[in-house]
Amino acid sequence: MNKAGQAAPDQAAALRERLDSVNARIAEACRRADRSESEVTLVAVSKTVPVERIRAAIESGVRILGENRVQEAAEKIPALCETSAAGNVSWHLIGHLQSNKARRAIELFDYIESIDSLKLAERLNSIAGEMGKKLPVLLEVNLGEESSKSGVTEGEALVVCERVARFENLSLRGLMTVPPFLEDLDQVRPYFKRLRALREEAIGAGIVGPEFRELSMGMSHDFEVAIEEGASLVRIGTAIFGSRG
Ligand SMILES: *Cc1c(COP(=O)(O)O)cnc(C)c1O
After folding, report:
1. Residues within 6 Å of ligand 1 by CB
2. Is the pTM of this model over 0.85?
């Protein structure tokens, strides 16, 4: 980083190249799946990435950033507010949120993708109400039932959807998942299919509103498969920012 707090020019160029390549791969996956590119939105996951590189990403056209920890976001988001393009940037929380950080999370983030319990939804609804906000959220489903991951189980998902959809100060936009990490993409694909089927079930059961359409699924190693299976938000970190080391 130089005195002006900018990423070194070669670093910024490398980042732009990786971003272009990710965007091209998204476009190609859309073509293969016969989907319009406008149906897929990139969330650039900037956890552990220093502020100057996030700034370079914003200057290269990134418009949605994802962070997984409130504490880290509280240090980075205010520092990026002065970036000229940052006014058009929105921030998504994609990691587990502790109840006691809910208020800070609503102050910092525009969108919460990681609602993993009814209790958390209740708390966010009540704070959003106090703040006069309507907060867009996704319900996270732990399809692999891995203890290391958060999210409601597939079995609970519809019941929780129905309750969350009724909260006045939340706008339940859809579902999110982080499937088990599997090298073999053919083994990941069924998880994406299941999330999509869950969305169709919720819509079919008439328990969610018209804004319930999003499927946030797909990361650096599997986003193309996720797009083929209907992802509308892809959360991509290392393919844009490089390895987190
Ligand atoms: C870190 C993270 C990502 C991005 O992962 P990459 O493999 O770096 O693309 C996506 N979603 C969640 C929930 C994450 O924590």
Report:
1. 45, 47, 68, 94-95, 178, 219-220, 235-239
2. yes
